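Ticket reopened. Same input as before:
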Amino acid sequence: VAAVGEERLIRKIRQWLGAACPPAPEGIGDDCAVLPVASRLITVDPVGFGRHFDATVPPGWVGAKLLKRNLSDIAAMGGAPTSAVVALTLAPAVSVAWLERFYRGLAAAARKYQVSVVGGDVSEGGAAVFAASLTLLGNPAGKRVVTRSGARIGDYLYVTGVLGGSLASGHHYKFTPRLAEGAWFAGRREVMAMMDLSDGLAKDVHALEPKSAAASLFAAALPARKGASTRAALVDGEDYELLVAVDPGADLWRFESAFARRFPAVRLTRIGQMMRRGRPAPGALVLRDVQGYEHLS
Amino acid sequence: VAAVGEERLIRKIRQWLGAACPPAPEGIGDDCAVLPVASRLITVDPVGFGRHFDATVPPGWVGAKLLKRNLSDIAAMGGAPTSAVVALTLAPAVSVAWLERFYRGLAAAARKYQVSVVGGDVSEGGAAVFAASLTLLGNPAGKRVVTRSGARIGDYLYVTGVLGGSLASGHHYKFTPRLAEGAWFAGRREVMAMMDLSDGLAKDVHALEPKSAAASLFAAALPARKGASTRAALVDGEDYELLVAVDPGADLWRFESAFARRFPAVRLTRIGQMMRRGRPAPGALVLRDVQGYEHLS
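Engineering reply: fixed in the latest deploy. New output:
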């Protein structure tokens, strides 16, 4: 991109985004973008060369994943996405052809999930740098958002889909963010808390634990991906599935069968229960023996 | 930061942000932040080590500037800021002490301008990398936003403050974003278009030119900073002043004196006029002889 210059590069980016980027001031081209719909949910997640992908990965997959991992966060609140902005840090040596395929992949995903890419920024980084950070806005799909903090002792824990082996299977590029499922959960009173799984169930589940509670998970119940071990299902990360806490007073049969009717192709599995800390359910996994991965360590 | 680990680092960041970061889900800690006020304006701008600052700059200044350059974009639409998220790319060698001062500077500016820092992301970059990108939301301060696209042939051009020498004088760290002035301009019917000056007047002014028009600027009229040349006022960049186009049918004396009453400490200078392309006003500067700076070139 070194030979192109900022202004031409931004014109090219608008062209690559195509219908995913509305004309200014709704899209790229003014000091701010003016959103047609005011938004109440916001999240931000990056992809970085060397960390989240390397030269063997098709750039279009990287662009799509950048959007989809943020969509997974919107899904986890019971939200629907509206608009995004993208900040790039680029080495001058990044090729225009690579960048075009990155943006075309992002644009295709944006059209699919009805997200407008309304702005961004391009700045120069050192050698071998490509980092992109996407900020995604959304709104509650229904009447409420579901936070991580509503779970109570006794709540049952459910997870969508299957876990583990995301990197080996390519799931971390191919996944479909659970937007429809998240919106459905938010519309169900028995759902007390929700989050998406990105760092591995064993690590992430702690974020749903209220004070004085700890999750008891059962190895035999874990829906592992084909070829993935129980340990992989607990620690691999990048599952982009939803973990929900459900009121134990609810009619679980009714809840499970309503989900199955609405999402016949998606597994929903009861994997454990919130217990009083220090009083795990008999046979529960000891989570301090396993660890989801930790960034920066 | 290598020794700290992501979870502890995020806890520290929340602590450094203090009152600038509300509790989750309004602030950091859930899959998304839930904004108390839905927002319609969005902008994103970065700071990067080696590009926007170096090791001689106090980290608190860098954090404050990251917010203020985005505030300048909100000001340029006639907006008021609401909330921000910050994405960091860090080398493991960045010290916790440096990062603390960066965040405390950001937090102090956020409190001053009533911005909540509601979320963010930290990811690892290569050696010698520190890049931060801030996405800022806002809403129109009054009934309308002012875009870059409303200017017409004949409009007068005005600029706030003084131009040039921003880097040498330290203005690019010390400036106050023109939020009050931008909101005031948006409330005046005679203001047709507005933008903030970041890449230098000579380059930026083209963004206000409607098709078939070109700006005629007058060297003698340019409000250069003390010690800055006319050329510096045209090309230095990082002025963070507002450039506005004003309806030539308006009562300019009334407009100028109303501004002077409301902002007695801020200069407002008529610097030129939009002319038909190829028909510059006599004595106007020939802007193709000067150039604002261009990123990535």
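The longest strand of chain A covers residues 33-48. Chain A touches chain B through 69 residues (CB under 8 Å). Please confirm and we'll close it.
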